UniProtKB/TrEMBL annotation:
This is Uncharacterized protein. InterPro entries: UPF0175, UPF0175_domain. It holds the Pfam family UPF0175. It comes from Thermococcus gammatolerans (strain DSM 15229 / JCM 11827 / EJ3). PANTHER family: UPF0175 PROTEIN SSL1255. Belongs to the UPF0175 family.
Length: 90
């Protein structure tokens, strides 16, 4: 892709202006979803965090992942703690 340089430069600008870059990404729900799924697949975020960022339940995200053939990792410590937070808020 000949304009890949734009993406690389965006990464640099995002380091300096993270909130602004994040706001731009959040304006495109499909882009945000792909970024979150990529982060989940790379092990950067948990399933619970991915669901939280996307504004869906864990169950809804699991269904989405199943439709896409994305493997579900076993819950980690972060997932368990996030579930406890949700339960204690109820």
């Amino acid at each position: 892709m000949e304009e890949l340089w734009i993406v690389k430069e965006f990464e640099k600008v995002a380091e300096v202006m993270p909130e602004r870059a994040l706001n731009l990404i959040k304006k495109d729900p499909d882009l945000l979803k792909e970024i979150v799924i990529s982060a989940y697949l790379d092990g950067i975020i948990s399933l619970g965090k991915a669901a939280e960022v996307l504004g869906v339940t864990r169950e809804e995200l699991i269904e989405e992942f199943k439709k896409r053939g994305i493997p579900i990792r076993a819950p980690d410590r972060e997932d368990v703690l996030s579930e406890v937070d949700v339960i204690t808020c109820l």
